[in-house]
Design a protein that fits this description.
Layout lengths: L6 H9 L16 E8 L1 E2 L5 E2 L2 E2 L2 E3 L6 E5 L6 E2 L6 E9 L2 H14 L1 E3 L5 H9 L1 H5 L6 H5 L9 H26 L20
Antiparallel strand pairs: 1-8, 2-3, 4-7, 5-9, 6-8
Helix pairs in contact: 2-3
Length: 198
C-alpha cells in the first residue's frame, strides 16, 4: 500500500530466477497504511473463538481501501482452522488520514453470523490514546474492558428508531398491496356472497 509493489509477485519473480521489477533501488514509501484483521472471536469474552454460518457480509470499498477476504455469505466458520476471515487494509496520506479512513471502513463493515472483532477495532481506532499514538504492549490491559463495546444510549435509541421505521414501512407496504389504505390497486374488492341452500 505504501510502495505500490505487489510483494508476493516480486517473491514469485525471485523464485523463478527473474530480477526484481524495480531493479536494485526500491521505491520510497509513500503515505501511511493500517491493517485490521477481522477475526471470528468474541472480544467481550476474552477474545474466545467464535464459529457459525455467515448470514450477511458486506466489506467496505473505495479509494485507499483494500479487502483480502476468504469468506462469503453462507460460509461456515469451522472449529478446526485459523479464525481469520479478512484483512481490511487502508492507505492515507499520513497516519491521521489512514486512521480516519479505517474508522469509516469499519463503520461500513457488516458481518453477521459468528461474533467478530469489528466493534473492537472500531473502539481501538477511535480511542484517544490510539489517536495520539501512545501505544504499548500493555495498551489493552490499561484501557480495554468488555463494557467498552456496549452500545451507547444514543446508539441504542438510533437502533430502536431504525427498527420502528422499518416496521412502519413494512406495514405500509403490506397495506398498500392489500388495498387496506384506500388506494386503488390492481385487485378488485369482491363482496362475499351469502351461501344459498341447495
Amino acid at each position: 500500500m505504501v510502495t505500490g509493489l505487489d510483494l508476493v509477485a516480486e517473491q514469485i519473480r525471485v523464485a523463478e530466477g527473474r530480477p526484481l521489477s524495480f531493479g536494485t533501488t526500491p521505491p520510497a514509501p509513500r503515505g501511511w497504511s493500517m491493517e485490521a484483521r477481522i477475526i471470528a472471536e468474541d472480544p467481550a469474552h476474552n477474545f474466545m473463538p467464535s464459529v457459525g454460518r455467515i448470514e450477511r457480509i458486506r466489506l467496505p470499498q473505495g479509494p485507499g481501501v483494500r479487502n483480502d477476504a476468504g469468506v462469503y455469505r453462507g460460509y461456515t466458520i469451522p472449529v478446526f482452522y485459523d479464525s481469520l476471515m479478512a484483512k481490511l487494509v487502508v492507505w492515507g496520506q499520513d497516519r491521521e488520514h489512514a486512521r480516519r479512513r479505517m474508522l469509516r471502513a469499519l463503520d461500513e463493515a457488516v458481518l453477521e453470523g459468528p461474533r467478530t472483532n469489528i466493534a473492537f477495532h472500531r473502539w481501538l481506532v477511535a480511542h484517544p490514546e490510539f489517536v495520539a499514538g501512545r501505544l504499548s504492549t500493555r495498551f489493552l490491559d490499561q484501557h480495554f474492558t468488555p463494557d467498552a463495546l456496549a452500545p451507547s444510549r444514543a446508539e441504542t435509541e438510533l437502533a430502536l428508531l431504525a427498527a420502528a421505521l422499518h416496521a412502519r414501512e413494512e406495514y405500509q407496504r403490506v397495506s398498500v398491496a392489500s388495498g387496506g389504505n384506500g388506494e386503488r390497486t390492481a385487485w378488485r374488492s369482491v363482496r362475499p356472497q351469502p351461501m344459498r341452500p341447495r
